[in-house]
Design a protein that fits this description.
By secondary structure, the chain is α/β, with parallel strands linked by helices. It contains six helices and seven strands; from the N terminus they run E-E-H-H-H-E-E-E-H-E-H-E-H. It has one domain: Uracil-DNA Glycosylase, subunit E (3-Layer(aba) Sandwich). It has a four-stranded parallel beta sheet. A three-stranded antiparallel beta sheet has the order 1-4-5, with helices on one face. The N and C termini lie far apart (about 45 Å).
Amino acid sequence: MRANSPILAGVSDACNPLAPDLTASTGFAPVLGTDARVLILGSLPSQRSLAAHQYYAHPQNAFWPIMSSLLSLSGDYATRCAQLRQRQVALWDVLRESVRPGSMDADIRLDTARANDFAALASACPELRLIAFNGKAAETLFRRLVLPGLATDNITLVSLPSTSPAYAAMPFAEKRELWYQRLAGAIPLTRPETEIE
């Protein structure tokens, strides 16, 4: 139903359960060690991730299975984050905050989008050599909101297929192989085993 529906006439958006949530979502601090060589960027945490206070918390998101396979990660969330830092991998999102009703990147309101401070991150991580975008939305946001003011002379930018369950067009094994190929030059990885179909 639309806000101009006779049923909803006179009902403010604050009381309207059908109105989109226009509260800004705020992202997390980075998972980061000062010796990070690789930075993996998403766009903004999903509603599930925000509720769990964890990056990539949706059980169908392929991020943790891919990284566990390539970097031999195991354990609970805090342990896996510590293992990422030990393997010189940092994790963050392009956006510090934005209004996004729901969890779809297409619903990010660009007029409310505020990027994280990547100049400070680059200064704190002099070994950073690769920024990898988990999906096209992260890359588009970075190129629009961050790249014009950031020196990236010694940093390679690469695109990765999204691990989101919303991007189901590519099978898991293919995503994992592309992640391996694009990250392999920057950090030691375990080669994914070929799966028989």
